[in-house]
Amino acid sequence: MTVVKKEMNPIPDDLHSKKLFELTYEDTNKCIQCGYCLPVCPTYKMMGKETASPRGRINLVKMAAERKIDIEEHLAEPIDLCLGCRACEVACPVNVPYGHILESAKEVITEKQTKQNHIKRQGKIKKLVLTKLFPYPTRMRAVGNMFWLYQALRVNKLVQKTKIIEKISPSMAQFEKVLPKLESPTKRNQIGQVIPAKGTKKARVGFFIGCIMDGLMYKINRQSIELLSLAGCEVVVVQEQQCCGALHSHQGMNKEARGLAKANIIAFEKSGADYYVNNAGGCGAMLHEYDHLLDDEPEWKERARQFVSKTKDISQLLVQFGPLPFKKDWEGIITYQDSCHLRNVQGIIEPPRQLLKSIPGAMYIELKSSHMCCGSGGIYNLLHFEESMMILDDKIKDILSTKARTIVTTNPGCLLQMNLGVERTPSAVPLRSLHLVEVLAEACGL
What we know:
The protein is of the alpha/beta class. The protein has helices at residues 15-28, 42-47, 54-65, 71-80, 87-91, 98-115, 121-132, 137-152, 155-162, 164-168, 170-178, 212-216, 218-230, 246-250, 254-270, 281-288, 290-293, 298-310, 314-320, 340-345, 350-357, 380-383, 385-401, 412-424, 436-443, and strands spanning 194-195, 203-207, 233-237, 275-278, 311-313, 333-336, 363-364, 406-409, 432-435.
């Protein structure tokens, strides 16, 4: 007697598994489980288990799409523990789109948790901040102004002494200590302002101010604009621009991310700029992928593609329109920590290094682990502080081995993470962390 096996239809029944199947199942099947991603994955290196690796997470997404495991019970935690550095995409020999799989899984997990009201208090606060604060530049500027006053009146010293923040959130207290000293808000460039090029005008660029950069690191924005002007660019601080949407996308809030993307496309189209420039690797990566984010909306697809084609990191334009007029010799060794999203998503590796090597007097030493994530991961270091610090401590050991006096980054999250690493690690060699723009501005005498 011949037994005929009935093939199981892998298309699931329930709403969330069905959506996960539609979004990612085909992509998960591209993974050949070869393991090339394992050596470059910081969470696998730290935890040493398969569910903390890219191929392990891909397999879990596939099983959840097939309804073999529960989305919330078995998938949510491994996905949440991923840094999203996407080094695995670069290492993958068959080009598995891990970033798409990860963001799709986060979107479905968030939708299911919201529907079942399983979002914890921390998650509700996070969603409130992302929907009511970050999309509004004026509100972010107000936060920055208040923090400047908080520092100027030395209230921060009292708060640190009494450990008020530490009682609420130990991780937040650590980062509060290492936030850079803010300059007066009166020096912040105004939205809509046009800064003329110094000398011959080579291009008109629309400047993306970002959220954290404009709220708490606007000195770097001001210096970025001055450097672009020195390089021959007319700079317009684009009106009506919004948050890039990266943090929303990373937290599974794709609807909100799409809305922000559309608002930015409209705003920057109006600027008449030849290029759209940013100085934050994470923001740049999100702007760089607007065409993928809006790929299924025909009325936006081509506009998004045009937007992406004009989007540049500041290092690219400073190399393209350089050399910069350096006025000071640099003292000591410089090393560089790649922003994961600048390197792995945008593919920008050499321009920052080229600029650092061009500074008179600087001795550049390559950091052997520069391609590995520092553990910042957007707000990962706040949500998963202990795991993040384990990754950071390894990174600082590598930095100290270079004998560098300056560690350079290209992303605000990375900069704060490096600041904390310096704070946590006593060193015989004085060490400071700076954004690439700060180093170049100092060498140019700005």
